[in-house]
Design goal:
Leucine-rich Repeat Variant; 6 strands; 2 domains; Transglutaminase superfamily protein; 280 residues; alpha+beta; 4-stranded antiparallel beta sheet; two-stranded parallel ribbon; 62% helix; 13 helices; SirB1_N
Length: 280
């Protein structure tokens, strides 16, 4: 379809006949992301509030369809890449973000740690180095003031504000560690996501790390005491590294809770749709 034909279709968006509008809307959604620039141009040149609202809704539907497709593909073929999964979630709220800034920030943090990393460092020394780079020098910390803010679940906002929730900070911590060949992985501890230093995945972790508390080192008895307080069993599900799919599921559940607390049922419903894609 050429530009003139597309403009002609878009011009029908202000038609009062709902049957015509619904047909035009569905046609534009079917075209996919390629029509978004033209829709945005039409929005900017329009002085009709109804037409502008309809354009905004169509753009959102197109972008949401793309996110669903991206997440489904990640689930099927690329779930070993945690960062890619986090960026797909990030696109839900920030579809036009220049993601290169996320890669650059993570690369800088990795490089700063790599310069000081020594071959003969013990596991605890490596963790102390990461803690110094991420929490002291860069300034990452737990967002205790707005713990349930949905922004805590979007990786670029966490890197930008340097404030996050337990799972977002743990993701950043483990991504950088693994890029440095330091075996730190996420652990799906109920109520409080953490990480673990695991040299052999068939064996229990050497110790645990709490990125929300500036990389505090914890041990098996600390985790067992925490689970006992919650009246939960000492299950490997809570004490061993979890999959990236489990991490993304938890990120999405956090967002569902955050939007529910904000009284935003539309976003809550859409995130629930994304969660179901992975759960299926």
């Amino acid at each position: 379809m050429n530009e003139q034909e597309l403009k002609a279709i878009i011009s029908l968006l202000d038609d009062p006949d709902m049957e015509i509008f619904n047909h035009v809307e569905q046609q534009l959604i079917t075209f996919g992301p390629e029509v978004i620039p033209q829709l945005e141009a039409s929005w900017e040149s329009s002085f009709d509030p109804l037409s502008q609202t309809r354009i905004e809704n169509i753009i959102h539907k197109i972008q949401f369809d793309q996110i669903k497709n991206d997440l489904q593909l990640w689930d099927l073929k690329n779930s070993e890449d945690l960062l890619d999964g986090l960026l797909i979630v990030n696109r839900y709220q920030y579809p036009n973000l220049d993601e290169s800034n996320v890669f650059l920030t993570l690369a800088d943090l990795k490089r700063n740690a790599w310069f000081q990393l020594m071959y003969d460092m013990s596991p605890v020394e490596k963790v102390k180095l990461l803690n110094n780079i991420l929490f002291r020098e860069y300034g990452l910390s737990g967002n205790t003031t707005n713990y349930h803010d949905p922004q805590n679940s979007f990786i670029h906002k966490v890197l930008e504000s340097k404030r996050g929730n337990p799972i977002s900070l743990s993701c950043i911590y483990s991504i950088i560690a693994q890029q440095l060949d330091i075996p730190i992985y996420g652990v799906n501890l109920p109520k409080h996501f953490i990480t673990a230093y695991v040299e052999d995945l068939s064996q229990p972790p050497l110790f645990y790390i709490n990125p929300f508390n500036r990389g505090q080192i914890m041990h098996e008895n600390d985790i067992y005491s925490f689970l006992k307080q919650l009246d939960l069993p000492l299950s490997e599900e809570y004490t061993m590294p979890c999959t990236n799919k489990a991490i993304i599921k938890r990120v999405l559940r956090n967002l569902i809770m955050a939007y529910d607390n904000m009284g935003n049922p539309q976003k809550k419903e859409e995130i629930d749709i994304l969660l179901k894609i992975i759960e299926e």
